[in-house]
Amino acid sequence: MRTERLIIEPLVASHAEALMSLLDERVNRHFAPEDVPTSQAALRAQFAEMAAAATNRRDGARFLPFVVKTIADGHYIGRLEALVHAKDAEIAFVFIPQSWGQGFATEATSALMVDLQGAGVERFWACVTPSNEPSLALCSRLNFARSELPTAFALATYDVGDIVFSFEVVNERQI
């Protein structure tokens, strides 16, 4: 995928070197401490596992991990993930703090949502730690609404205490 300012590409193990500093940011570790490998080798292994999971899920869902880089300088600034269950997609995002406030997360996540909508997704879900103000703001900018947990499937990124958001596509120009 490509936007005016960003390239969004499928995650592969070799992205580990470029993304280690992104995931090493203290603020990102605060919101997802258990998910952040502490070495480049561990991150490479995690990315290889994530890339394999995209095609090897037992539950029939499609896991789609992506990395986001700027066109202007080619720097990687974030990661996006989608777990697609038929017409529902759970999305997750992490961006370096230096990229905050420039609209990159909104631009990238919107592009992902448009792409998934084109593949038949009608409802999007996101789980956010209540203290994660940047992610709460992103959900607001994307017109997500607070929601109850879905009943048809479990949200993979949900932790007790998280705020659950959903966005239902009403028409094709909505995103």
UniProtKB/TrEMBL annotation:
<dbReference type="Pfam" id="PF13302">
    <property type="entry name" value="Acetyltransf_3"/>
</dbReference>
<protein>
    <submittedName>
        <fullName>GNAT family N-acetyltransferase</fullName>
    </submittedName>
</protein>
<feature type="domain" description="N-acetyltransferase">
    <location>
        <begin position="26"/>
        <end position="170"/>
    </location>
</feature>
<dbReference type="InterPro" id="IPR051531">
    <property type="entry name" value="N-acetyltransferase"/>
</dbReference>
<dbReference type="InterPro" id="IPR016181">
    <property type="entry name" value="Acyl_CoA_acyltransferase"/>
</dbReference>
<keyword id="KW-0808">Transferase</keyword>
<dbReference type="GO" id="GO:0016747">
    <property type="term" value="F:acyltransferase activity, transferring groups other than amino-acyl groups"/>
</dbReference>
<dbReference type="InterPro" id="IPR000182">
    <property type="entry name" value="GNAT_dom"/>
</dbReference>
